[in-house]
Amino acid sequence: MSYDDFSTRMEQKYPKMFADRYGGFCIGEGWFQIIESLCAQIQHHIDWKNEQKEKYDRGEGCDQVTVLQIKEKFGGLRFYYSGGDASIDGMVRMAESWASRSCEVCGKPGESRSGGWIRTLCDEHEAEHQKQ
């Protein structure tokens, strides 16, 4: 899936999360599934918490998460946002941890590789990178 297709898909699927201007997706295609899964879980959690508060007058609501920027930095995923609660903080940390073990290119198991730019790559994509 191309970058443009992915960003359009995410903006259409999660319009509340991507309502404001954000820094885009500066990640490889291998992490698209991680981001999509994370956004689905975040929005489900927010909707559920707010429904519990409105319908049943139970618990606290949850502020809508607004994405500020999603990028790769030092071989790791960085998901910057505003809103949410402690559960969402945990979801984001889990996704960042998942990405640190997933190839940025294809999503298969990977590891942090150095040699100039730090990247998280599987053995296959590390070998391709070394040939360049």
User: How many beta-strand segments?
Assistant: 5
Mean pLDDT: 93
Total helical elements: 4
Uncertain ranges: none
Observed structural traits:
3-stranded mixed β-sheet; alpha+beta; 4 helices; about 130 residues
Q: Could you walk me through the main structural features you see in this protein, from its secondary elements to its overall organization?
A:
There is one protein chain. The protein has helices spanning 3-13, 32-56, 86-99, 123-131, and strands at residues 25-26, 66-73, 76-82, 111-113, 119-121. The chain has 132 residues and is an alpha+beta fold. The chain has one domain. The protein has a three-stranded mixed sheet. A two-stranded antiparallel sheet has the order 4-5. Helix 2 (32-56) runs antiparallel to helix 3. The longest helix has 25 residues, at 32-56. The radius of gyration is 16 Å and the shape is elongated. The model has no long low-confidence stretch (mean pLDDT 93).
Can I get a quick summary?
The protein is of the alpha+beta class and 132 residues long. The protein contains four helices and five strands, in the order H-E-H-E-E-H-E-E-H.
